[in-house]
Amino acid sequence: MGDLPFDGNVLDRSATTPLHRQLYDYIRDLIANRILAPETRLPATRQLAENLGVSRNTVVAAYAQLESDGLVLARHGSRCQILASLSPPQDIAVVASPAACDAPLLSRRGALMAGQIVRTAIPGHGAFHPGTPDLRQFPFKTWRKLLARQLQTTTQQVFGYHSISGHPRLRAAIARNLATTRGIRCDPEQVIVTAGAQAALDLLARLLLDPGDAVWMEEPGYPGAHSAFAAAGAAIVALPVDEQGWHADRVTGDLPRLIYLTPSCHAPLGITMVVEHRRRLAEIARQSGAWIIEDDFDAEYRFTGPALPAIQGLDGAGRTIYLGTFAKAVFPALRIGFVVLPRGLAERVESAVFYAGAYAPLVLQGTLAAFMDEGHFARHLRRMRLLYAERRRLFFGLCQDYLARWLEPIDGYAGMQTSWWLRPPLDDRHLAEEARQRSILLTPLSEFYHHGQPRQGLILGFAPLREAEMHLGLKSLRDLLEDMDNG
To answer: What pLDDT, on the 0 to 100 scale, is given for residue 160?
Structure first.
């Protein structure tokens, strides 16, 4: 690393400020103080990560922010280069009090949220990002016609400050669809449309939880939900889940204020909750006065046996909040999700939805409503179920052909991805970092564990992949694993 001033003392692991922000601030100060002059090349991300004892993603995030601020130039295949010095104008006196210098940049909640791992897709690379539909199959021609019809309206229906809880036509379409497909009993007035499922989770966490409230959450469980509840100050209690099911009898500690579940397709194991466990958890919620958030993740794509009834339909006490999204059945960038609230709760949340900014554009809601009312949604979903079922069968077999030496299957039969245990001594996060350098998108299963020692595994999406793409992606992953074995 030459004479550049980077060593293991740069970062304070006891601080609340995320490591990538600490590294960004450190390099920015070096530039401002002219210690790093223009045209100086920064260390390679992998080299600096090794030197500092952090993940490569930490260094990548710091460099990306420096580039966004115009301080460095990043070229593919080359090290980042300092672009300009950074100092205050000479005619301006800058006075900073010691207290201001020592003040944290973010609140504890902000630091927690900023420190979460986010694994995004890469456009044009479908192997193997989970939850990604095959957009080549979506009827965009029909969608464009319906959208144009919405844009041509001369009314205020989709252009004004109103319908905060959702476009009336879409709320009615969602209620009808849920009644016929999921056994959900609700009126349109109980449906609240949100800007995606994550916005709904954040809204519900703020509405229902006070700091210190106990939340039972699946372990392993969805990181997006964990982040929303932790940011609200909840005390998160592990509800163990394994291939045998949900083990409420193993939970210790306070009675819950809220129970978060993904019963149709557990995130991340892909298993489905049996009816007995659904009834048991609904009874625990009734006895303790807790809310259940039933995140019906990937309920559209169950590939064996009949669809099981939603907990909301089994809950006679009205303690279940049902959460859904159109990201997988339509397309992710639509950013439309919804919650079905018990009647007494639904009447009280419109103002909260407005101030949280959790609502989706009405013009897109109107387009989706027409897409559903005219039968396009149901036809598209039927076609994709058949396609994904065949792709899942093929992908599962190919994974075993290519990767049986390293992977052990988890027998889930739902969803747009498959889950696998990694055979020791592989580390799933290290493998995911190495794979991304080859444009292979792996999701480490260990990132879904929030208590105790995580298990190592991978979540591999298959839905957007044709057979040739499966072979190509799995061969590339096999080559990487063989290189790691030999290295």
So the answer is: 80
b/e burial code for range 368-384 (CB count within 10 A of at least 16 → b): bbbbbeeebbeebbeeb
Distance of CA 464 to the CA centre of its chain: 18
| Residue 113 DSSP SS3 | helix
C-alpha to C-alpha distance for 100 and 173, rounded to whole angstroms: 53
pLDDT (tens digit per residue) in 241-286: 999 999 999 998 889 999 999 999 999 999 999 999 999 999 999 9
Which of the four CATH numbers 3.40.800.10, 1.10.10.10, 3.40.50.720, 1.10.760.10 does domain 19-114 have? 1.10.10.10
Fold of 380-486: Aspartate Aminotransferase, domain 1 (3.90.1150)
Cα–Cα–Cα angle for 263, 265, 268, nearest 5°? 110
Q: What is the pTM of this model?
A: 0.78
Nearest to 320, CA basis, from 279, 361, 269: 279
pLDDT averaged over every residue in the chain: 89
φ, ψ (nearest 5 deg) of residue 309:
-65, 145
Q: Is the pLDDT reported for residue 287 higher than 70? A: yes
